Structures are given as C-alpha cells and as structure tokens.
Amino acid sequence: MEIRTVFVVLWTTIVLLKLAIAARLPLFVDEAFYWLEGQHPAFAYSDLPGLTAWLIRIGTEVFGDGLLAVRLPFIVISALVPWLVVRLTAREFDPQTAWLSGCAALLLPLLGSLGVMALPDAMLALATVLCLDAGVRLLRGVTHGGALLLALGLSLGALSHYRFIAVIGVGIVALLAIAKGREALRDPRVWIAIATGAAAWIPLLVWNVDNAEAGLRFQMVDRHPWALHADGWQFIVIQAVMVTPLLFAALLIAAWRLRRAPDDAARFLAISGGLMVLGFFALGFVADTERASFHWPLPGYLALLPLVGFVLMAWPRWLRIATWATLALGFVGVVGYYAAVSTPEVRERSAGLKWYPSNFAGWDTLADAVREELAAMPADTVLVADNFKIGAELGFALGDPRIRVLDHPLNRHHGRAPQLQLWHLQLNDRAELAGRPVLLVTGANDVKFSALLQRYQTICARMGALPVSRVVNADRGAQRFILSRLDADPQPADGDCVTPALAYVDQPLAGARVDAPFEVRGWAVKDGSGIASIAVTLNSAPVAQAQYGAANSWIVEQFLAGDSRDPAGQNIGFTATVDPTALAPGRHWLGLEIKGNDGSIEQWAEKPIEVAPAR
Q: Which residues cross the membrane (predicted)?
C-alpha cells in the first residue's frame, strides 16, 4: 500500500474515531466555561480571546446543544491541519516525504487528539501552520497571496490564545536569521499583514484596559512563580512520552541538522521549531507547574513535522518501524484514555485512583439530582453554584447560562473570577437574591480536604445556613456534591451554623487487603449540631454500627486548625468491627452513613478494599 493511501485511510479512521468519542465524552470543565462564554457573546474574555467561545456558539446554534455540537467545529479545524502539513511539505520538499510528515501529524498524540475537546489549541495549531506556510512562501518572494495568508494566520492566532505571542516572536527571529527573510520584512505588504494580525489583538487589549489588565496579569504574572525551580527538567521526560521517544528524537535531530541548511525553507522551519521547543523548555524552570502545560510546545513540533521525513528516511528500517510502532501506541494511548473516560463504568472503577478524571466526571448525575430538587421547590428558586466549574457544567446540562456562582479560590486560580463579575453572576451576599429561596450546590472535592471545613464556614457566613438536603456521590463519592435547600426568609441560627459532616477512615486504607473480621477506625465532625451516629457500609449497605466519641486532639487542634465547632470537642473518633464473611472475596466498597443531630443523613465517599478469601 502506497504511503498516500495509508495517510488517507488513517485520516478517515481518526476523524470518525474523534466524532465517536466527542459525542460521548463528558464536557471538560474548561469546555463548559467556554460554552458559557459563548452564551455571553463578547470580543474577548478574562481567560481567552473570543474565537473559542464563538466557535462553540456557532456549533450549538447550527447543530443543537449536544456534546458533539460543541466540539464539531474543533474536529473540522483539527482535520485540516495534517492536510496543510502535507501540502507545505510537498510544495517545498518532496511529495513522498510529505505523506510521511502527514502520517506523523495524524499520529502525534498531541496533534492527533485535537478536536476531541473544544479547546483553543485546535485553532492555535491551524493558525501556526498557516503562518509557517506564509513564512516559507515569503522566503521565495513576497506576493499578495503570501501576505494575505500571513495576515489570516496572525489574525486567527491572535483570536485564539495569549500563547500565540510565542509563535509571532519565534517567527520574526527565524525570518531575521535568514537573508531572504530580512528582505521580505522590508516589503510593505508584509507589514500590512503584520498590522492586520496586530489589529486582531485589539479586542483583548481593550478588555484588559477596561478591567485593570486582569487577563494579562493572570496569564503572564499570577499563574507563574517566575522563580527558578527544578521541575523544568521534567519537560524532557514529559515531552518524550507525549510525542513518543523516537519521534521526539527525530524532531530534535531535524531541528539541529537543518538549522544551517542551504535551503531557506528548511532552515526557517528548523529554526522556528527548535527555538519554540527550546523556549518552552527554558520557560519550564520558572513558569506554572500546577496546570497542564505539556501541550504548549505543539507549535514547535508543527514547524518540525515537514522536516522529520528527512531524518526518518535516513534511519535503518528497524528503527523506522520502531518509530511508527511507538507513535501508533502513543496515539492509541491518548485516544484510548478519552474513550475510557467517556465510559461511566471505567470512571467508577477508577474512583480512588490518582488518575481519576474528576474534571469529566459526575456532571450528569449532579444535573439529574438538581432537576429533582428544583422540581420540589418553589418556581422562583435561585440555583447557586459553589464555583465556576459547577456553575458552567450545570449551565450546559440545564441550558441555563445565568446560574449564580459564589466567590471561590478556584475562580481566581483559573482566571475566571473577573468574567463572572462582569456577567453579574458572582453572588457575594444572600441579600442580593431579594428574599427568594435558594438551591445551593457545594463541591466537596474542590478545595483541599484540610480546607473543606473552612470553606463550609465561609459559605455559612455568606448564605446564613448550610443544611444538607441531599448528597450526590458520583462514582462512589470520588465526585461529591452537597445540595442545600435554603428558605426564602432564613431565620437567624441559634448558635453555630450547621455544616455538612467531615469524616475520614484511617483504617483500612484505600485498596487494602482485609481478612474477616477487620476493624474500621477514623474520625468525623459536624459543625453546629454534632453527630448522632455513624454506620459503616459495604457496597452502600450498612454492615456495622460504629462506637463514636473517642478523643482525637491532633485532628481537632492540628489538622482542623482549631476551627471545628462540633459540640463533641475532641471526642470525634470512631471504631467499628466488620465481619464480611458473607461477602464474596474480591473488591468491595467501604463507606460511612453519618447521621447528624440535626436529622441529616449523609452517605460519605466510599473507597475500595480487597476482601481476602476465607481460610
């Protein structure tokens, strides 16, 4: 089978695979917020320029409100990129090499999975390829077509993401390094194209001027420590895994060998790609390490893909086979992850594991519970979300882009707080609701466990009460939400505000192997009312009543920092003995049923244990 046919078959298969996954994969929290932005049309937003939100709005207006409608424009955009890589490579170098580069573009995990989620990286990749194409055209001589292509690429990039600034900077340096590039930069048509691209930044600049540079400060200052740290060395390992080791090596070799090539096009691409990858490697020693950044160097790999065929063709056959095999495995691994995450059974099985996909999980379950609660409440009830994640996901699920959101560290941590304030969606005080009843949805996993009690107390101070009307434990409680019905005219509380319970099982640990019988030990607190009783559950069914009231001063004074207002004081420990002899050996789910003195009943998050066979 000739290489062109391989490319076409791969491209068709991958596009169909993306469509299938995109139609089932739950909305990632960032996608949900971009959907929310699309429901509030503007030229720019606090976290991004406007193009991502516009594309989502177009998709939903044309194709409806489903998951696939949100993502379809991004699948189309990502499907164009490999063809553009083939076209650029064939025109500048060799048709046979072009199809190799195209196949690499299709299977490169970072690029091949684009479009499965509605994220700005798809348009950022398209804008990068257009600018690279324009750059190599300009090296042969400035034409109106080349200048127009440059203007288009620069404009799309400016409307996509702040990170496109890196593509512009590296592109200018690469042109300045080549004599024909310096000559092109003296042509007024190129500067008209650059001016057009610069004009596309105006909406974002205007937004920042009008909002105290909140977006710029978040992207360039607040989210980065700007202090040396050793984590930058992880870049090499992470990129080798995400690109696959042999292709990563081939791309770097291409950049090094062709940085001084006599062919201006090859030299331009090698310098552009090499500087981009090297720049993000250096940035890794001073930049943000808390959020995902493994995809940042993708524009650099796009520049190097047209050159990788020269390296691969020179390698021995066994090494080429190994490169394509590892590349295919990498692609299957990334796409397989999305396919797994889109399956409810897999999400539940992964509860309690480090890789549990919390940003994809639990939203449908939560939305169903919210619908049921709202149906039982007055028609003028106001739905209030604890943070932007819950507000955006419920907004998409319920078709409501006006859900009020409380101030939360997550809103600021992700640069969304200024936008929520501009939309008048941030709720600062219960008095703003003019005496209407409230259904409050609080996320129990959205702050560190050690800070959860303080979060509950903060909500109490703002909302006046935090009764537990319903607990939603998605995937055995790996995603946990507290639903609270608040009356229209809340009465002043007698004593401390009653909060949801906090509990922890110290023994057995998650994943532990237990023999029959075994002891369960832990602690639990509940501000305001205290705890009436605790039952230990296996697979959601009560199996033992715990003895509650043992002293645990370290938890109260150190872990909870003395903030607990549970009437039990330090006597918050519990123990129970469970005899699971009636259960089949294997995996079971250990949990708690906590009854408060206020009458509330809370099912605590479950964790897996392994019951050993009877001896």
A: 68-86, 98-119, 147-178, 190-209, 233-256, 268-286, 298-315, 322-340
**H/E stretch holding 30:** helix 29-38
- What is the separation, in whole angstroms, between the first and last Cα of the chain? 59
State the DSSP code for 614: P
The model's pLDDT over 6-42, given as tens digits with 9 standing for 90+, comes to 999 999 999 999 999 999 999 999 999 999 999 999 9
* H helical segments located in 363-483: 363-375, 388-398, 409-413, 417-422, 452-463
pLDDT digits (tens, 9 = 90+) for 555-611: 999 999 999 999 999 999 999 999 877 788 888 999 999 999 999 999 999 999 998
Q: Which amino acid is present at 184?
A: A
Q: Where are the beta strands (DSSP E) in 57-202?
A: none
Report d(CA 340, CA 343) in Å as an integer: 5
Are the CB atoms for 261 and 270 separated by under 8 Å? yes
Q: If residue 37 lies in a helix (H) or strand (E), which one and from where to where? A: helix 29-38
Q: Is residue 295 very low, low, confident or very high in pLDDT (cuts 50, 70, 90)? A: confident
b/e 184-213 (16+ beta carbons within 10 angstroms → b): beebebbeebbebbeebbebbeebbeebee
Model's pTM, two decimal places? 0.93
Cβ atoms of 211 and 39 closer than 8 Å:
no
Q: How many CB atoms lie within 10 A of CB 40?
A: 15
Contacts of 505 (CB under 8 A, 6+ apart): 520, 521, 522, 590, 592, 607
From the list 589, 584, 590, 559, the residue with the least C-alpha distance to 573 is 559
pLDDT surpasses 60 at 493: no
User: CA nearest 531: which of 563, 567, 484?
Assistant: 567
The C-alpha angle 503, 505, 511, rounded to 5 degrees, equals 135
521: enclosing H helix or E strand: strand 518-525
DSSP letters, 109-122, are HHHHTTTSS--THH
